[in-house]
Design brief:
By secondary structure, the chain is mostly beta strands. It is 5% helix and 38% strand. The protein has 2 domains: 1-58 and 71-84 and 242-371, no CATH class; 89-241, no CATH class. The strands form 3 sheets. Strands 1, 2, 3, 17, 18, 19, 20, 21, 22, 23 and 24 form an 11-stranded mixed beta sheet that branches. Strands 4, 5, 6, 7, 8, 9, 10, 11 and 15 form a 9-stranded mixed beta sheet that branches.
């Protein structure tokens, strides 16, 4: 199988980790990235990338509500080979059905879109999910009464179905709010909700939650079948109770995730732990302990300054998108505005960090992660 990874280096590391009952790799992988570049040659301007998935041999990303307005409400098409962003994105439009629903006003007002997943049975269908709605226009009183029992946030998390049209626009055809059972103890965290989506071939959608009331990441699931979109009532998620690393302190959210198919096996979930620079390899069959893969990210300097290295180690990468392509993992970061300039070492890169430009990374999957 042809590999297109951008470059990786395995280095020895003594791992000190607060997570228990998981297998932490004794080496970390240092991964070289490429700046996402527009067709005019400039780096991508503040897209606040919040998801990444393989689609028609390219990559798709989505921007959240904190992105530059020029990047919102569309899916960006990215070349795996050179990290170039296509000049024509896939803009989103709203159907009358969604516009007239309880969620129409919010979805028409800079919604905070997080994560995406391509339906494995029909690649014209792509799902995205909403997160923070605290700055939105809200819902009518009637809608609030109908959806006030989300089990999480006051304004519920909304799963949105997009369908590719002949003119390469994406129509919001359906929207359903998510409901978490009270015994799941999710808590009300508007900006720490679902930030990861991954489809398995049978139509099971896995949803990665940043944190619950105990400050732990969680993974839930939904069965997306032909009947799923026949209603706009609550969709009740199921707690998969996967083996997710547990930490004594700090925040360790899941911010990106994709499905890894393995022969004669239900597969694995590859989840990005943004705050830890880690990938978590989670066995869907729940037979193997989760593997924790430590990472370091390197940004190219593209500098003529001889005092600058070809690549510099990033102080803060904030990984937020994972896409599986055969035996390769593709990753994209979400520039954290508060800390992104902490990455500046070579002055050549300062303007790129000031534009909050993300980077695309890739590396091969290691067989031992699945043992």
């Amino acid at each position: 199988m042809k590999k297109h990874y951008l470059g990786w280096i395995v280095l020895t590391l003594t791992v000190l980790s607060g997570c228990s009952n998981n297998k932490v790799e004794s080496t970390y992988i240092s991964v070289k990235g490429q700046w996402l570049v527009e067709t005019n040659g400039d780096v991508m301007l503040n897209p606040q990338t919040s998801g990444l998935k393989l689609w028609r041999d390219k990559l798709l990303s989505v921007s959240d509500a904190s992105a530059d307005v020029s990047q919102q409400l569309q899916l960006h098409v990215i070349s795996k080979d050179d990290a170039r962003v296509a000049s024509k994105s896939l803009p989103m439009q709203m159907s009358a059905r969604v516009g007239q629903s309880c969620f129409g006003p919010y979805l028409n007002d800079s919604p905070d879109l997080e994560a995406l997943a391509v339906d494995p049975r029909d690649d014209r269908v792509i799902l995205v999910v909403t997160e923070d709605a605290t700055r939105s226009v809200g819902m009518s009183q009637e809608c609030q009464l109908r959806f006030n029992n989300s089990g999480s946030t006051d304004y519920p998390t909304v799963l949105i179905r997009l369908e590719l049209q002949d003119d390469n626009t994406l129509l919001m055809t359906h929207a359903r709010p998510l409901q978490f059972a009270s015994e799941y103890s999710i808590g009300n965290f508007p900006n720490d909700g679902v930030e990861a989506l991954a489809f398995s071939p049978d139509g099971t959608l896995y949803l990665g939650l940043e944190k619950d009331i105990t400050n732990h990441a969680r993974i839930f699931s939904l069965a997306i079948n032909d009947q799923f979109w026949s209603t706009d009532d609550f969709a009740q998620v199921i707690d998969e109770k996967f083996d997710i690393p547990q930490f004594d302190s700090g925040t360790h959210p899941i911010n990106g995730m994709d499905y890894l198919q393995v022969p004669n096996h239900k597969g694995f979930l590859v989840a990005a732990a943004r705050n830890d620079n880690q990938l978590w390899i989670i066995d869907i069959e729940k037979q193997r302990s989760t593997k924790v893969v430590p990472l370091q990210f390197l940004a190219p300097t593209n500098s003529q300054d001889k005092t600058c290295p070809d690549y510099e180690l990033m102080d803060n990468s904030s990984l937020e998108g994972v896409a599986i392509n055969g035996d390769t993992i593709w990753m994209v970061n979400d520039p954290w505005k508060r800390h992104y300039l902490d990455n500046v070492v070579c002055e050549t890169n300062r303007s790129r960090y000031e534009k909050f430009a993300p980077l695309l990374f890739s590396m091969p999957i290691q067989p031992n992660w699945l043992n």
